[in-house]
Design goal:
By secondary structure, this protein is of the alpha/beta class. Helices cover about 50% and strands about 15% of the residues. A seven-stranded mixed sheet has the order 5-4-3-1-6-7-8, sandwiched between helices.
Length: about 300
């Protein structure tokens, strides 16, 4: 029989290194196994006001009713707690619009609530929110990318949120879409419903305690509606191309290098500028026309890609 050779110093050092690495991995895995999962709630306030107002009082006009935002946010937190019993809440993000992004008194009160962060987009002259969807996308994607959340509750209905859902899911987060019962038809875009990991709808009984009609409300004269038929998709697509031509003329072809890798998505600021310019040229709000917003973006990209 041959006697076992003693380990050389170099081999012993390698073995010791492997043992230290294994010990470190064991500690890391143990920490990951015991670390609680984390969830956050992302609320499109414009959607909540419109859907809850319509369901409870029959109108989407915020001047006609009061929303107990504090009570509703607490109800959302409680519901999330029951659905994710082993998860901790990171915070609630409340997205709303304000002129020049200056908090109203109501928004200040919401911002002071514990575990709530108010994020503001702009309000235009027609009281339409601008930039809110891009804020949601930025926050949702950033938190998912940094593994700050494992689950995200998204309360909204706009098709423009699809890109935010896809981006967060790409980093492993699960997206749960919550909505408010629609009086007729749907108040959430089908492409958004298709992309999320789960869905939940709150009915009249859930919403009623948090919405009350103002007793002394006198409706003001409505803004003049769009005159004439809604433009055809190809006409809107041409407007998107026209805006792209203006955009390139002002900034130069070098800016294309920053945009093309993100196709088919545009940075939030560029997307907002595109929609505002297109609405001005069309004389029509695109807020309720998801198909026309897509046509504007398609036309914008068509022109950009023709430059190469």
């Amino acid at each position: 029989m041959h006697e076992a050779r003693p380990e050389t110093p170099a081999l012993a050092a390698v073995v010791a290194g492997i043992e230290r690495t294994n010990a470190l991995l064991t500690r890391v895995l143990a920490e990951v196994a015991t670390r609680p999962s984390t969830h956050a709630v992302f609320v499109d306030a414009g959607y909540v006001y419109a859907a809850a107002g319509r369901l409870v009082t029959g109108t989407e006009d915020r001047r006609a009713f009061e929303l107990d935002a504090e009570g509703l946010i607490e109800a959302f937190i409680d519901k999330a707690r029951t659905i994710f019993p082993d998860s901790r809440l990171l915070r609630v993000y409340w997205y709303d619009g304000a002129r020049r992004r200056i908090h109203t008194a109501e928004q200040q009160g919401i911002a002071e609530l514990p575990d709530v962060k108010v994020r503001l987009g702009n309000l235009n002259a027609n009281n339409q929110q601008k930039g809110v969807d891009s804020l949601i996308r930025t926050d949702l994607e950033s938190l998912a990318r940094h593994r700050a959340i494992s689950d995200a509750v998204l309360i909204g209905g706009d098709e423009d949120l699809v890109s935010a859902v896809e981006a967060a899911q790409g980093y492993g987060a699960r997206i749960h879409l919550w909505g408010i019962e629609a009086v007729g038809g749907r108040n959430q875009a089908e492409p958004l419903l298709w992309e999320v990991d789960s869905q939940r709808t709150f009915d009249l009984d859930f919403c009623k305690p948090y919405v009350s009609r103002r007793a002394a409300y006198e409706p003001l004269a409505e803004a003049a509606p769009h005159r004439g038929p809604v433009p055809a998709r190809e006409d809107v697509r041409f407007v998107g191309a026209r805006v792209a031509a203006q955009w390139l003329g002002a900034r130069g072809r070098d800016t294309l290098a920053d945009l093309l890798p993100g196709h088919p998505y545009l940075p939030g600021a560029v997307d907002q500028e595109l929609l505002v310019e297109a609405e001005g040229l069309l004389g029509l709000s695109l807020r309720g026309h998801a198909d026309l917003r897509r046509a504007v973006r398609d036309g914008f990209w068509d022109h950009l890609r023709m430059q190469f």
